[in-house]
Amino acid sequence: MSPLRERRDYRLVFSGYLISVLGSQMATVAVAYQVYVLTGSSWMVGLLSVVELVPQVLGMLLGGVVADRMDRRRLLLVLQCVSVLTSGGLAVVASGATTPLVAVFLLVAVRALLGGLTAPAYTALSARAVGPRLLPSAAALNAIVIQAGVFIGPAIGGVLIGSAGLPWVYLADMVSFAVFAVLLAMTKPAPPERSDAHGDVGLLGIGRSLTRGLKFTKDQPILRGVMLIDLNAMVFGMPRALFPAFGTAVFAAGPESVGLLYAAPAAGALLAALGSGWVGRVHRLGHLTLYSVAAWGAAIAVFGLVTSFPIALVALAVAGAADVVSEMCRSTLVQRSVPDELRGRVSGLWLAQTNAAPRLGDARAGAIASLASPALAALSGGLLCIAGVVVCAWLLPDLRKAVNTEHEPEPRATEPAQE
Hints:
By secondary structure, the chain is an all-alpha fold. Helices cover 80% and strands 0% of the residues.
């Protein structure tokens, strides 16, 4: 909790982000419910993720470039105001006698683009506001926000849909963006410390600016390692696509079990994040990153092996806990490896990868499950993830040796010399 106690601007930005995440999660449930009611098709609900993916990733890449060119506080203010309008559009559409599905999908795509633009600017602004010493604590708080949002937001959204109707959920989302904007307005301006974008105008200029971010990432061994180890964990170990099959077929526990399987990793992640003060005191962050990704893989492999539903939930909770520890380590290493003038672009690249990789993992798991079985898909993915950690540790010594520079070990006391 140190960043919230010691940094006023971070406290304001964090509070606004928390409220905004809750509103967005409420709206996510509302959109899925609305599309299902309109079409009666789960496939159309699943299509929402596809509609969101491309604009979200493009927004993150472009948002990183823009965040390194202008005041990040001002950029976030503009994005929150535009987001209010998109939520208002969804409220209007939901209030009409007829609901054009195309309008819903279009507004969802715009929301995804705005969310993508917001993410790197928020990451850069919060890192600047909190300072290097408190980055691990800020990473833990960010993980708490995300996991709490996944838990609380959908529940509130569902209750509000049943008691007041869809338009009120979108109106609540509008209020959340407006509150974030008000809190941002109370913070100090946050322009990049320097800018390397002089003369970079138009699409070619944006491309050159993004290329510099790519080159910096490629030339930094720790950044390459952080992205590769995350890619390994998500592509090989992500089991979400298997949850419906496990709940209904493997465990034969009914549809309620599917929801519990989805919730279990978030539960473990939230508990681990709440008790994660120790992570900021770990000196060898590279070692902890590798161990936590290996623990994620091992927990997923156990999930694929067990036939007991309660044990499966425990395994997924352990996986979620390991994943959030890895996330805190990786976030700290990324932010400490990047100068402020490049923080937006590198954050955009990192966030784009972390959003796209789980979908690749879902595709891999689904393909193996259809060819063999869900159990083999989970087991093989977990084992491949562990093997990937071994390979990364061998090929990426800089990641393995990465340390928390804010917590250098104290030198050992020596005996005074004898005269």
